[in-house]
Amino acid sequence: MATIKRILLDVLKPHQPGALEFTQTLADLNPGYRVNLIVEEVDENTESLIVVIEGEDIQFEAIDQAIKKMGGTIHSVDEVEAEGSQPSSSD
Amino acid sequence: MSLIQHIRSLWNLSQAGQIARRYFVTNGFDGALTMLGILLGFYTGGEVQLVVAISACLGAAIALGISGFTSAYLSETEERKKELKELEESLVAPLEESYHGKASQITPWVIAAVNGLSPFLISLFIILPLWLEDWGYMLPLEMDPFDAAIGLAFLAILFLGIFLGRISGTFWLWSGLRAVLIGLVTAGIIFLIGGNP
Q: Does residue B12 sit within a domain?
């Protein structure tokens, strides 16, 4: 099955945890995850973010759960990059 | 996420440390001044049995502790519920399972414990000489237990003032002496009113 290599998410989160802790938590989900976070908009209680995660095998469910635990919600998955697995020699 | 990180996240989110610190000083000061007031009341009132003084002080300490615990718990619970509801409305998502939801449940207990224990423990510290005397221990320099307890009340007030100074970043001695001055003014008023029944 193809593995996800890159994913771009539109996320809404409360002010706490801050951008640093939020990014670190996502990066710690799996060794090799590279997370890029851009704060797009700041409201009274919330922040809109663009979160880009790159890795060898991105686990979307775990990312979704971690974001929910930090009080955030994924509004949309705006970009996905996947790589197909090598066909076996018998194919 | 490790357990320590999990607890740290909850702690940071709830801002419990900051609030608990404030409550510790506020209600601790309440406890110290109340004990000072009761002790000075006995002092100006004349001879009083040690056991009566201990009972009165202990009763006040327990009442302060329970009052501190319940008032902080009730007010913090309602405040946290309101904050969580507002946040949920902003996010258009439930937050019960998030750190915010958990923090809103745990924080009132932590703050209530600090708010209740602070005046209770400070009061127990202040009336320690009365207990020691009652248990038959000799106080240093053969001090009168009431004088020693009043001295400890001022020491507790000084400590709370210094603690407050360290939090606010002001000069610790000035902050401590300012708190002691409040204690002295309280003592003066008690002597003025209570000294001439």
A: no
Q: Which residues contact B130 (CB under 8 A, 6 or more apart)?
A: B50, B53, B54, B57, B145, B146, B149
Please check whether residue B11 lies inside any domain of the structure: no
Domains of chain A: 3-83 (3.30.70.1340)
Mention every residue, 6+ apart, whose C-beta is less than 8 A from residue B118.
B23, B24, B25, B27, B28, B31, B68
Q: Which chain A residue's Cα is nearest to B89?
A: A45
Q: Do A73 and B92 touch (CB under 8 A)?
A: yes
What are A55-75's pLDDT values in tens digits?
999 999 999 999 999 999 999
Single pTM value for the model: 0.78
Subunit contact B91:A14, Cβ cutoff 8 A: yes
User: Helix or strand or coil: residue B197?
Assistant: coil
Cβ contact, residue pair A73, B97, below 8 Å: no
State the smallest CA–CA distance between residue A86 and chain B in angstroms.
32
Into how many domains does chain B fold?
1
* Torsion angle defined by CA atoms of residues B182, B183, B185 and B187, in that order, rounded to the nearest 10 degrees: 170
The predicted-structure confidence for A1-48, as pLDDT tens digits, reads as follows 889 999 999 999 999 889 999 999 999 999 999 999 999 999 988 999
Please give the Cα distance from B195 to B197 (Å, whole number): 6
